[in-house]
Amino acid sequence: VTNAYTAAQAIKVGRKLEELDVFFMEEPVTVYDYRGLAQVADALDMRIAAGEQQFTRLEFYRLIVEGHVDIIQPNVIICGGITEMRKIAAVASIFDTSIVSHNTLNGLPTTAALHFWVATHNVRYPQEYDYNASRPDHGLLMVQDPVLPKNGFLTPPDKPGLGVELNRAQLKKMAV
After folding, report:
1. Which of 40, 62, 91, 103 has the fewest CB within 10 Å, making it most exposed?
2. 10 CB contacts (<8 Å, ≥6 apart)?
3. How many Å apart are CA 102 and CA 51, to the nearest integer?
4. Sign of the dihedral defined by the CA atoms of residues 46, 52, 56, 62, in that order
5. Contact 109, 79 (CB under 8 A)
6. Model-level pTM?
7. φ, ψ for residue 29 (rounded to 5)?
């Protein structure tokens, strides 16, 4: 559950999660509560991750400097694309902060995030991939030959650009 706790509640829950050796706690307090985020990060030994709702490199700078997060989670689709993501990664590299690409849409978003992932040194952990989506996966329908996991791994396409073509017939069906 993201953004669900006060700082005190998040610390209490986080201590229990530490006993279970949880890898990281994601977005424990209300978005933009940098002070509360710092309280949680400073109180726990577990990694704290945040950033799926941030958009600019300044917001990620504040997450790192004011919120004391260990891992930032930019989303290529909402933060301004690969160019802004590269700038966010540069900010994070100044502080040696790790990145986990936040991604809940397959198809084009997964492909863009994957290209960023393989080209950025401080993306140290696998990217999120919505493998068992319970909703219709419109992202996969929007591209021809989407990137799909094989043996648990995603491999970026080697074609020009992002390496995928839009499925124009499907996009026409989905147009509102």
Report:
1. 62
2. 25, 28, 29, 36, 40
3. 8
4. negative
5. no
6. 0.88
7. -120, 175
